[in-house]
Design goal:
The chain is of the alpha/beta class and about 290 residues long. It has one domain (about 15-294): HUPs (Rossmann fold, 3-Layer(aba) Sandwich). About 35% of the residues lie in helices and about 15% in strands. Strands 3-4-7 form a three-stranded antiparallel beta sheet. A hairpin with a 3-residue loop joins strand 5 and strand 6 (about 180-185). Helix 3 (about 100-110) packs across helix 5 and helix 5 (about 205-215) crosses helix 6. The two termini are about 35 Å apart.
Length: about 290
């Protein structure tokens, strides 16, 4: 599994990906980010992989996954591998890739980098309030950490949350292809984070790292709201013996009040634009202008 797949502009192979989560309809902000991912794959004469990130069985729906594919095709985006056309790294639905996540979880647990967590989110939020952590994400308290030890299992037990033990004080630095140098401090900007949920579902942080390694992704294009996730994920790449890919974090598209567009808000979906007779070529022209200004 361990291999160096760092991308540079003169690399032989560029592999990017489109990775929508079918928990709601995609909106214009998603469209711009996915268009940039597609454009960069063509700019560097590479390949693009479509991956359906449908891990959460309660929020993700098959009809929304189908709609996402239709929305992408309407935007005139194309890909070389995906759930609709197959490819050498199938399956391309995360819900069908559990064995990959279980294998990596087992490996991390054996090295002592994980620990089972019995604390609830309510307890963590209460600790945060008691200790004046009013900004940022709640930091898992040092005194709650068990001693480091190796755990052996074939499959994780349902009902147990597993957290990744971050190296407190470690500065995680990377050069973003859009935003420049980024730095975050483990234990201050983020703490021990969940990699396996109580309901037996792998957490986003672990799943995307495992899939990007297995699918040979060389650059990840996504929104700047995921910068902190990138810092966490770089630690997971290292723990799994791999170099991280390059990252390109796009500025977020916001509404007239400065709020980022969200699936849960009344942002107009790509599907709505399709139904209204919007011209995808006009969108592409605008996205090109934005990309060239970055």
């Amino acid at each position: 599994m361990a291999r160096d797949f760092r991308f540079s502009a003169d690399a032989d192979v560029y592999r990017g990906r489109l990775a929508p989560t079918p928990s709601g309809l995609l909106h214009a902000g998603h469209a711009r980010t996915f268009w940039i991912a597609w454009h960069r794959s063509r700019q560097f004469k590479g390949s693009l992989i479509f991956r359906n990130e449908d891990l959460d069985p309660l929020r993700c729906k098959a009809n929304l996954a189908k709609t996402a594919l239709e929305d992408m095709r309407w935007l005139d985006l194309s890909w070389e591998e995906g759930p609709d056309i197959g490819g050498p790294h199938a399956p391309y639905d995360q819900s069908a890739r559990t064995k990959f996540y279980q294998s990596s979880l087992k490996r991390l647990a054996e090295t002592g980098l994980l620990f089972p967590c019995a604390r609830s989110r309510k307890e963590l939020n209460a600790y945060r309030e008691l200790n004046g952590q009013n900004i940022g994400e709640p930091i898992y308290p040092e005194e709650w950490r068990p001693r480091r030890q190796s755990f052996q299992f074939e499959t994780p037990e349902v009902g147990v949350v597993w957290r990744f033990r971050v190296p407190s004080g470690r500065v995680v630095t990377f050069v973003d292809q859009c935003l420049g140098e980024m730095s975050f401090v483990a234990g201050e900007d983020f703490g021990d984070f969940v990699v396996w949920r109580r309901d037996g579902v792998p957490a986003y942080e672990l799943a995307v790292v495992v899939d990007d390694i297995e699918m040979g992704i060389t650059e990840v294009v996504r929104g700047e709201d995921l910068l902190l996730s990138t810092a966490r994920q770089i630690l997971l790449y290292e723990a799994l013996g791999c170099y991280p890919p390059e990252f390109f974090h796009c500025p977020l598209l916001r509404d007239g009040d400065g709020n980022k567009l969200s699936k849960s808000l009344d942002s107009i979906s790509i599907t709505d634009h399709r139904a209204s007779g919007a011209d995808p070529a006009a969108w592409a022209k605008d996205f090109t202008r934005v990309y060239n200004s970055l």
